[in-house]
Write a structure and sequence with these properties.
single chain, 70 residues, mainly alpha, 46% helix
Length: 70
């Protein structure tokens, strides 16, 4: 999500990205996920994580959205 939003030098969690863009986490996820799914270069990388056990921040994210059929 960081790269899709143009953050190449720093990594931010979804919570931090939401605050930076003044959105709640669900809205931020939906916005960025939609963009990621529309770009093959991002979509390919997103698809590499197959299970929620691969999530680096499972307790601070909207993990149920990341690993659902959205």
């Amino acid at each position: 999500m960081n790269l899709a939003l143009g953050y190449v030098e720093e990594q931010f969690c979804l919570s931090c990205l939401s605050k930076l863009h003044e959105q709640d986490m669900q809205s931020m996820f939906d916005f960025v996920y939609g963009y990621i799914q529309s770009r093959d270069c991002f979509k390919k990388e997103w698809g590499k994580m197959k299970t929620s056990s691969e999530c680096p921040l499972p307790n601070t994210c909207v993990i149920d959205k990341c690993f659902s059929e959205t």
